[in-house]
Amino acid sequence: MSSDSTDSQQAAPEKKAPEPAEQASPAPRRGAGVLAWFAILIAIAVAALGWYDARRRIDVTQSEVAQRLRDVEAESRAARALAQQAQESVRESQTKLGQMDSRLSELQSQKQALESLYQDLSRNREQVQLAEIEQVLTVASQQLQLSGNVHAALLALQFADNRLARADRPQLLPIRRAIAHDIERLTAAPALDLPGLSLRIDALVAAVDGLPLAFDERAAPAPAGAAPAGAENEGFFARLGAQVWSELRKLVVLRKVDSPAPPLLAPSQSYFLRENLRLRLLNARLSLLLRDEAGYRGDLRTAQAWVKRYFDVQSKRTEEVLAQLEQLASVSLDFQVPDISESLEAVRSFKAQRAGGS
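RESULT FIELD:
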């Protein structure tokens, strides 16, 4: 049994010897599987990384595209706003251009009207100038005949001569000769200062209220408080008697009168006296302007007689008024004032000739 068992034991190891070889064969399979799974995991990781990178790039690209779209949209809105502004500017420019066209047409029409008016004026300049000269000479002739204002007539003739001299046309020489002749006649005429005489009469009219009346004259009272010499040395009764005697002497005043006593006038009569004297002086001024020598002298003489009769001739004011009245009454108005009819006839005949020739 032992030998069998030993044999069996010896034989058993001989049979179990190949087990390590059998057990070594599954190890490479397991390693290959791990490697395969590791490769799969790596491939999955690489794929995940690629997908993530692609996703990230897609997101970046989408954000860039969205930003570009927003920028393009903003630029599009700005472009639309600029286009709208440009359209409004174009419309405003067209409106202004239309207004300028209408204004230009108006200016052209006004220019044409002014040109036609200037042509008419240039054609009728001579007629207009002659009409102006005729009007000036007519007014001067009227003033000369009504008030004898020689100075104004001379100024009108000189104005007309200067206008004709600036025209410098030989056709106007006859008018200038007539004007020169009238200027010579007016210069040689006697000078009568009618405005100055009228102002002097106005001054007398203003001085009427200040003239003192003759019946208002009173003797100058003795100075109050004047005592005779030596009165201080006399007694009380002597001074009293002197004062009483002085007062009694003032009750009766004796005056030597060489001329008739002046008439006594009530206050209302004094007022009407001054007003009538003022009216006489105003009538004298009117007669002066009308060159009515008889009326002029009569009114001044009447005023002079009233002043001598009713007013105080001893007053300085009255003496000055009487001297003025005497000087004014001595002025002679009897002279023939020359006229300027020759110049007027020359202008009118020349205008008639030009009208007939045209």
